[in-house]
Write the structure tokens for this entry.
Amino acid sequence: MAKRLLSLLLFIAIAASGYSQNSSSKADIDKLKTDNELLQAKVQTLEAKLDLLKMEIENLKNQVAAIKSQPSGSGQTTVSQPSSGSSGNQQVYKSQTPSAPSSGSGGQCTAITKAGKRCSRAARSNGLCWQHGG
């Protein structure tokens, strides 16, 4: 009888330890699933950013090819500068012929915008504003 009681107690102890490990394993599995979902979301975000960067590289390659294909004496150079607050590029056409730079900061910027109009910002000593290289 004592052996049966001892065997029964041993069985109960083993079963109880297995049950507690099972419940902690379930909690670990749930945590791993949550971590996996978060990592999958991060991967998707990074893949989207990578696609945007690839498109930007293609655009830059096309701009370089267009600049290289321009005749060397065309009188204008296309310059791409990032605009503040957006991820796109703003094309600015600068005249290669020197213009009289204003003395001080009182003159108007001499750069021509993508829209074909003269920049309305105040120029620095080199005739260009802060955005166009002054």
